[in-house]
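Hi F.,

I've been meaning to write this up properly since the lab meeting, where we talked about keeping a consistent format for the predictions we share between groups. The idea is simple: the sequence comes first, exactly as it goes in, then the structure tokens exactly as they come out, then a line or two of notes. No screenshots and no reformatting. I'm using this chain as the first example so we have something concrete to point to.
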Amino acid sequence: MNKQKLVYLAFFFVFLIVILNFAPRAEDSPAGIKNVTVEEAKKMVERGDVFVLDVRTPSEFNSSHIEGATLIPVTSASGSNLSPDSLLEARINEVPKNKKILVYCRSGHRSTSASTILVNSGYSQVYNMEGGINAWIGAGYPVVSSEDQEADSL
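Output, unedited:
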């Protein structure tokens, strides 16, 4: 290999390293959103200084959710036929602005979207629970179901 090709190859690798260091990463969260682990989320819930927002569908919520969570779906995913006025963008005024907001879904994708909606609407203390309810249950943390709550009230 001649010197000119070697110089081009060196420039290519330097360029590649620079691009990889400055490219956005999938785990980076938008400004105003703090990603938290389920361990951190559990501590927030135990302290009681957080509004817990479940952004899944009603059927997902009914099967299991964090005790005290408020359901406001972000999309009508998973075959749900929720009307647009039932979704987070239309019901955002139900989310308090003066509290920390802990957002979760099933695995963490919808909660990222919901967190972005909240930040874009002026919320400044938004916490996205990484891994969603799946990670919460996987860590052995308690959940409740709407069926359990109905049975307790009988």
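Notes:
The beta strands are 33-36, 50-54, 70-71, 100-104, 126-129.
The longest helix spans residues 3-22.

If this format works for you, I'll send the rest the same way.

G.
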